[in-house]
Design goal:
90% of the residues lie in helices and 0% in strands. The protein has 172 residues and is mainly α.
Length: 172
């Protein structure tokens, strides 16, 4: 429904701005779509990696827990704690403290790999930003606005970078 949304947004502005708003809407919609696809790729990689790791450790319900971790990976900061916490609780209930610590170590490793390698590379390619720009945007967003800032940082930065040349040529 992107075209309908853009058309509705375009109706809010005066005739002088409608062409600009329509073109900028296309850019923003493309960036947001690319960001969501990138996030889904990262979350899927998390889910598969965690599910395989849990299965190798002998944790029951490994595929289900991996899927939950992948789902919660879509939510910056809190998602890792919620999804990972569920996996640690199941590991503790089924195998005791040693297994829970092993699962915790697995999760810390996976989430560090995701945060420092996978997310910057995948999101950087999907929204066409340098991986360092992704890390800086996420860090600034998280520091300034917490979870909401981390969630909005990359798409906001990518949209700004894509819209800046258009606005420069328009003299805005």
């Amino acid at each position: 429904d992107g075209r309908q949304l853009a058309g509705g947004a375009n109706g809010v502005f005066g005739r002088r701005w409608r062409g600009d708003v329509a073109q900028m809407s296309v850019v923003v919609w493309g960036v947001l779509g690319a960001y969501i696809r990138g996030q889904l790729i990262v979350a899927t990689a998390d889910a598969i990696t965690v599910a395989v790791g849990l299965a190798l450790l002998g944790v029951p319900l490994a595929p289900v827990l991996g899927a939950l971790v992948g789902f919660f990976a879509l939510f910056p900061i809190v998602g890792a704690f919620v999804g990972g916490g569920l996996a640690v609780i199941v590991a503790f209930a089924s195998g005791g403290g040693g297994l829970a610590l092993a699962v915790l170590a697995l999760l810390v490793g996976v989430f560090h790999l995701e945060a420092h390698v996978l997310s910057p590379l995948v999101l950087g390619r999907s929204v066409r930003l340098h991986p360092l720009a992704i890390v800086v945007a996420l860090s600034c967003g998280a520091v300034l606005l917490g979870v909401i800032g981390a969630l909005l940082a990359v798409p906001t930065t990518a949209c700004s970078v894509r819209l800046a040349p258009y606005l420069r040529t328009r003299g805005a």
